Every structure is written in structure tokens, then in C-alpha cells.
């Protein structure tokens, strides 16, 4: 009963040869339908006429079979129907629910004509353990369901068996309903359709259950002749078996299912240039179900599995259980909502799913119904070459469905492939419907080469529904992974493009690492995005990411900006180590509209490093909206090579505040932390840095600062640390180049403030200067440096005040200045135990044209003139205190030193004995 690949290949060639002959010779008949005599009369089945007057080539009456209750049994030695022919099962009796037939002659059945049953409401079961082939002229005309199988037996609900090969078990024919298809061997024969069109009546089932199943179309030269299997509002069951066991279809009226017991080894189901369709396009009823069980499912050459719902109630869906699923060549699997009814879901359970060359798995909503939910449970998933998994909200009011992907090993999305809800291309919603939710759970998720995971809303003009934009909310995206890699333009996005629609939230939890790098060929960066776009009023969603390691490089972005009236989203990062380099950035700004910028909170328990030009964390505002706030907590914060943290404003909005809490902060190579206002009336935000250990700034243009270039006041700067060190051109500045006042600087350390060739300054060209307060219990040391609080405006301006309060103040070629041009100079107050300044240092609080400020230095040891006072007498020569051996070494150019510590005092003179201890 087994059919191997060579036999199948030979059978296909034979079929083609016979087909050519049958088409070439009108009236030529090679095959026939012959009963084997085990159920009734033996011999050729004659032609006849149906009750409606139609002729039929083979008229199979109930007298040629055997009836048992509601079941009518037939047994054939040969069953072949060629083009132009028909085989019709008929009965004059009523109450027949199932027509069960078998072919016992040892040859496959070739059906290239019409297979018909005019028994009202009866299901047709057709078993041939040597194989079944349907040709391009094959068609169905049955009143019930059709089940075609190469099984060895049909089991009934009373456990009775009807075997495909005659035997003792056939002596009792069951009156119960068929329940399962049974296979005794490990290599069941195949079922093949070649350009066939098989359609079951509405609400009925079409089943193909056997060994390998091949459903294929072919190229006629002028068009593709698809195989087309249809069961409108019903079920299509496809099961490929490669081991002993049973296949159990669920009975009518129950939850759709197709179960193998155990059928642990499954065969190959190939669907090539073919369509499987359970949609009811009339809209009278909901869609049906497609159920697939196989070891390997291949879907290629534009094949399509569809359970689209055109009805008013909830549709069916597609359920696939296979070892592997391979989609290619633009093939699709769909369960969409096309009217007011909700779409059914798509569930795929497999060890490996691959889709490439623009394949689609989707559950869209084109009307008012909700799109279908998509569930993919697999070990590995590969989505490549523009392929997509999506559940869109494309209609006036329908919501997008949810997408759930769980892989136990790896998920790869690459080559501009997408997982989106609700839009296929840009993950967008046209109407008022909400986007669905995306959840991905996998140990390893790689997103690259322009691939995208998205759940956006979109503004789209001139769409077929007449809406100018989407009012629905973008869906949430949740990813739970071990490792997440986004590269070469890979994106995760759920932005708000619609008129009022809001962006969804992105939540990522990685137990190992998240790496985001590079851009695609068009320069689009890899990243996480939750934007509120320019023409919309909806707020952007928030982004939450948790991982031990987060690495962004090569222009990668985490962005939750707003470009319109909606507010930017918040970004929260909970990591151990965060690294930004090569122009990577984290941003949640207000960039042109009236919406407020979002807040960014970064908690990195170990290290946070920003390196390279445009590598930054920012919440800037460029419009009327206020900037968001930035809070950072980490053990070691390092900014280098122009890395930056800023909350600037170039519009009328208020700049955001920056709060940094670290163990140590190191900045170098032109890096900066700033909250400035560059235009209009917006005020700058404040910058606060708290370090348990040291704040170290090194290099030209490196600095912590605030600037006001408009009418808004500059932000204040507050630094708290154990020590502050500035070197090689580093700066702490609060300046104003417009009409707004400069901000103030407040520095408090528990140790020292040390500056070398650097400055701490507040300045204002046209407004009042800010104050500078420095508290350092031990020392303030300036070498080639300056502390200035100056103004350059009119007579009404006042320079900032400077207050310094350590034990020691040391100035070496340095300046402390609180000057003005026309206005009043600021006041300088220094309170210290020791104040030392060399001749090249300056302490000044003057005004060129206005009122001088005051300089108040309170120190017990002070040399305000800047000269060091020499001792009154000459030093005693060390030579006089040394013995001859030491002096000889000095004369010879060799130096040494030693210290002798006595226990009870010193000798009265060098070289003398120590005094005796006191008794």
C-alpha cells in the first residue's frame, strides 16, 4: 500500500500522458469506475441520468452498495474519472448521512472530471490507500462534506472499523458516525491536486488526509492554473501523516480541530501556486476554518491560505501545527475582517517558521470589525526579504488584532521584513480604530537590514474611507528576550501619526543584552521609536527598557519625540551598563509644535558611557512646548569625545531640568551637560549633579553649562561632590547672550576644588549676571584659571556675586572677577584661613563706566598684593649640619637623605649623643 517517490513521479508522468490522449481523442475513454463486489454487485458502473435530467458518465446507485443505519458503504476495485466525465453517488432512500467508499484494486484514483453526490445532506468519504490525484478539470458537486484519504481504515464513534482492504473486519458495518482516519504503516500514499478546483458547499468540510500532500498549480503558458480548494464558511482539513496513528477531525458543531493520535511522524504538505479559501464572499455568513497538520508545510509561488470574514459575526480562522513552515514567493496566510464582523485568529505552532520574498501573514481589519489575532509559537522564526506579519486597522472603525510571537531559540527579522499592527508598510491606522498589541518572547531577537516591528497610527490623506487621519491609539509592543539586536536600520516603532491618535508604549525586557547599531541603505537609523508626528495632536507613547547591557552605536536611536501638538513620550531605562557611541542618541524632545518634551530616566547600576559626536541623551524643545526632564543615576558616568547630555530649548518653551546622581563623573574631549535656551522667550532648565566621589572635567569645550540667548533666564547649575577637578580648558558656565538673566552656579564639595587652565563663570551681555557660590572645606586652587561673574549690558545691569568659603584659597596666574561695563559690578566675598595669590593673579569687582562692586577677603593669613613675603633672616646652611661623609657625596654630585627618629628627644647639637632617658 506504500507509494514511494519514484512511484509517485511515474504516476504523474502517466497521468499527464493519459490526459493528453484523453484531450486529443474526443470520446476516448481509458478508465472506468468498477465495483469489487464486496458491498454489492460487481462490475462496471454504467452511465445514467440524474433526476434533474443531467446525464452522468458513472451513476453509482445505493443498490451497488450496502446500507447500515445512516451510513451507505461502497467498495470499488477501480475509480478513475477523466475530463468530461462524472461519477455520481445517488440513492432513492432518505436518511443517509454518510456515503463511505473505498478503492481496493491497488491503483491510485485519478479524478479529472466531476465527483458528484446528489444525496441531500450526505457527507462523502473516499478512501484509496494507493493514492488519489485530482487533475485540472476536476470539480465537486456534493451536498455535504467531502473527505479524501489514503488511510488504511475509517474508525467510527462506536470503535467499529471500515478497512480500505477487504477482510474479516468488513463483515459488520457500523451505524455510528465516522470519527477518525487510521494509518497502519509508516509510509501512507500521497494525495495530489494539479490545477484542480474543489469546492464544498457552504458550511461543509473539505478534507485531504493521507501521506505527503501536494497541492499545486501549473503554468499554461499564458496564465497560472491554480489549484483551488474552497469551503465557504466551512472547514478545510489537511493532514499529512508519515507514521502509524489516527487523525481525528472534530465533529461538526464543535470547536474546530484536527488531532493526531499519535501520528508522531508527519509528512510533507506542499502548496504551490494554489489557493485554500474558507471565506464567504456573499457576506451572508462568517468565514470558516483551515486546519493543517504536517511535518513540513511549504507555501510558495504566490499561494494563499485565507479565512477572511465578510460577515457580521465573528469569523473562523487558520490553525497550523507542523514541524516546519516555509513561506516564499509572495505567498500569504490571512484572516481579515472585511465588514462589521470580527476576524478569526491565525495560530501557527511549529519548530521553525521561515518567510521570505515578500510573504505575508496577516489579520487585518478593512471594515468595522476587529482584525484577527496572530499567534506564532515556534523554536525559531526567520522573517526575511520584505515579508510581514501584521494585523492592521485599515477601516473606518475596526481595531487591529494582537500579535503574539513566542520562540524558544531565535527570532530573526531582516531584509525590510516587518511585524506590524496596524499597517503593512508603515504600521499605521487610517480610521478611528486602535492598533493591536505586539508581544514577542524569545531568547534571541535580531532585527536588521531595515526590518521593523511597529504598532503606529498614521495620518493619511485621500484614503478610500474619506478620513484625513487616524484617531485610534497605536498598539503597545512588549518584547521579552534574552538578547535583542537591532542593526542596519532595524526598528521597533509605535508612533502617533494620526490627527488625535496616541502612540503606544514599548516595553522591552532582556535578560542578557540589547544592542542597537547602524542604519539602513537610505540612512534611516536602527532604534526604538514612539513619536507624535507633526500634523497630529496625539501624544507619543512611552518606552521602557530593562537589560543588564544596553549598547547603542553608529547613529542608533531611542526616540519618543513630538513634532506636533501632542506630548513626547517618556523614556525609562533600567540597566546595569549603558554605552552610547558613534552618534547614537536617546531623545524625547518637543521639536516644532506645542507639545511638551518627554522625561528621560536612566538608572545604570554600574556604568553609563557616552562617546563621540552626537552621542547624546536629550529632551530639547524647539517650539512652544516645554522641554522634558532628564534624570540619571549610575555608579560611573563617563562623557568623552563630545558626548552630551542636554535639555536645551530653541523656542518659547521652558527648558527641561537635568538631574545626575553618580558615584563619580568624568567628562573629557569636548563633552557637555547643558540645559540652555537659544531663542525666543523660553527659560533654560536647571542642571544638578551629585557625586559621592569626584567630578572631573578635562579638555577644551568640555563643560557643564547653561546659556540664555533670548529673553528667558538661563538655568542654574548646582554641583555636589567630594571633589571637583577642572583641567585643560574645561568649563562650568552659566551665561546669557540675550536679554535674559544668566543662571547661577552653586558648587559644594567636601574636599577641594581644583582648576587648571579652566574656568567657572557666569556672564551676561545685556542682562544681570548670575551668582557663583563655592563651598570647599579644604581648598580652592586655581592655576591659569578664572572664576568670573561679569555683565556687559547697560547701566541697569548688575554683575553676579562670587562667594568662596574654604580653608585655603590659592591663585596661581588666575583671576576672580565680578565686573560690569556700564552697570554695577558684583561683590566678591572670600572667607578662608589662608589666601595666597601670586603677582599675576587678579581679584577684581570693578565697573568700567558704572559702580564698582566690593571685594571682601577674610583670611588670617593674607597677602592681597599678590607677593610672597620672605623670611626675615638667612637660611642656615645645611652643610654646617652634615658630617664629612655626607658633604663629600654632595661635593661629588651625589645626593642622598636620611631621617633618624629618636625615642626620647634630640641631641643638643648635630653629631652629639642623645640625652639619657629620664628615670
Structural commentary:
With 919 residues, this protein is mostly beta strands. The strands form 6 sheets. The chain has a 40-stranded mixed β-sheet that branches. The protein is rod-shaped. The relative contact order is 0.03.
Please supply descriptive tags for the structure shown above:
single chain; 40-stranded mixed β-sheet; 22-stranded parallel β-sheet; disordered N terminus; 919 residues; mainly beta
Low-confidence runs of at least 5 consecutive residues: 1-8, 20-31, 459-470, 866-872
The number of helices is 2
**Taking all residues together, what is the mean pLDDT?**
85
Counting DSSP E segments of at least 2 residues, the number of strands comes to 75
Largest sheet: 40 strands, mixed
Rg is 42 Å
Oligomer: single chain
User: In one word, what is the shape?
Assistant: rod-shaped
Termini gap: 122 Å
Instruction: Report the sheet-strand fraction.
Output: 35-45%
**Which structural class fits the helix and strand makeup?**
mainly beta
Please give the share of residues in helix: under 10%
SSE layout:
Layout: H1 5-24, E1 33-36, E2 42-44, E3 48-49, E4 55-56, E5 58-60, E6 66-68, E7 71-79, E8 86-89, E9 98-103, E10 109-111, E11 114-117, E12 123-127, E13 132-134, E14 139-141, E15 146-149, E16 153-156, E17 161-163, E18 178-183, E19 191-194, E20 197-199, E21 205-210, E22 213-216, E23 218-219, E24 224-225, E25 227-230, E26 235-240, E27 245-249, E28 258-262, E29 268-272, E30 274-277, E31 289-300, E32 304-306, E33 317-327, E34 332-334, E35 346-349, E36 352-355, E37 360-362, E38 374-383, E39 388-390, E40 403-413, E41 418-420, E42 438-447, E43 452-454, E44 477-487, E45 491-493, E46 506-517, E47 527-529, E48 543-553, E49 557-559, E50 571-581, E51 585-587, E52 600-611, E53 616-618, E54 630-640, E55 644-646, E56 658-668, E57 672-674, E58 687-691, E59 694-698, E60 703-708, E61 717-721, E62 723-727, E63 731-736, E64 745-749, E65 752-756, E66 759-764, E67 772-783, E68 786-791, E69 802-812, E70 815-817, E71 828-831, E72 834-837, E73 842-844, E74 855-858, E75 861-862, H2 884-891
Parallel strand pairs: 5-8, 7-9, 8-11, 9-12, 10-13, 11-14, 12-15, 13-19, 15-21, 19-22, 20-25, 21-26, 22-29, 25-30, 26-31, 29-31, 30-32, 31-33, 32-34, 33-35, 33-36, 34-37, 35-38, 36-38, 37-39, 38-40, 39-41, 40-42, 41-43, 42-44, 43-45, 44-46, 45-47, 46-48, 47-49, 48-50, 49-51, 50-52, 51-53, 52-54, ...
Antiparallel strand pairs: 1-2, 1-7, 3-4, 6-7, 16-17, 16-18, 18-27, 23-24, 27-28
